[in-house]
Amino acid sequence: MATINHSSGADIIVPNNNGTTYRGLGGDDTYILSNSIAANAAITIVDTSGSNTIQLVDGLSVASTKFAADAVQLTLSNGAVVTINGASNFDFDLGGNSTAGTTGSVSSFAGFAAGAGVSTLPASGSVAGASNVSVTGTSWSGGAATYTYTVSSDASQVTEGNAVTFTVSSSSAVAADTSLTWTAIGSNNGSTVDKATAADLDAQSGSVTIPAGSSSATFSVTPIADGVAEGIEGIQVSVFSPESATVGTSTVLVNNAGASSTAQTFTGTTGVNNFAGHLVTIHLVSQQLEH
Q1: Cβ distance 134 to 141 under 8 Å?
Q2: How large is the C-alpha radius of gyration of the chain?
Q3: For residue range 1-51, what is the model confidence (pLDDT) as tens digits?
Q4: Nearest 10 degrees: CA dihedral of 126, 132, 135, 136?
Q5: Domain parsing of the chain, residue ranges
Q6: Do 115 and 140 meet the contact criterion of CB atoms below 8 Å apart?
């Protein structure tokens, strides 16, 4: 990739050459990104000296954004990819254009990331931010992102009183806080166990929110420990997307932690004896033998 080094003065730079790294030197430089960048171009911006600004002009159309700890990659709607390394050294001017004498909404790199849906920059790797958006005036517009979701649990069988933790994951980091709902009902697990009742659960429904810039969140369901002797019971937990589509369903079996069946001793006498046990009534006939 070719490199263009600029002067030590305050330069206004309009990157547009495919396969080029634009490097500022000692001045306070301004880099203007617009739809004039050639389709499918690959451009890199690096500037570690001075007080520098990235301007995203009004009307700039962006297909996707990706953020790392100190870098951002913008893929424009025409396929051009602009990578800004050392991004913490820049201010980001949304809607600004020095060639037209326009100043937009200026923020730090962290603020720019937050505006694109990444509330916390990752310590390692990268996360996706806003997609299918355009700069309108001094803010982003459009770009309702499309996500798919999955749900998993940390256990398929627990004992009463122990929580089951469910993790809801999105296909990529969400651009804004995203809430999903869940329900918990009894399940007979294909007629193999008894259904848990509402009284067996700490909650029957709720919501879970994936924070902006994250791709997962957790919630817990706890079968209540009681003193009742009972067999294995089943619960079914279902998660629903913001559009009310079913994301996933999990069945969890619950082992009894309450009173166990108590051993009972019966002493018979001559004649008819009726004994009431925990589960059955025993009718016992004893007969005195004569010698």
Answers
A1: yes
A2: 32
A3: 688 888 888 899 999 889 999 988 878 999 999 998 999 999 999 998 889
A4: -150
A5: 2-141, 149-255
A6: yes
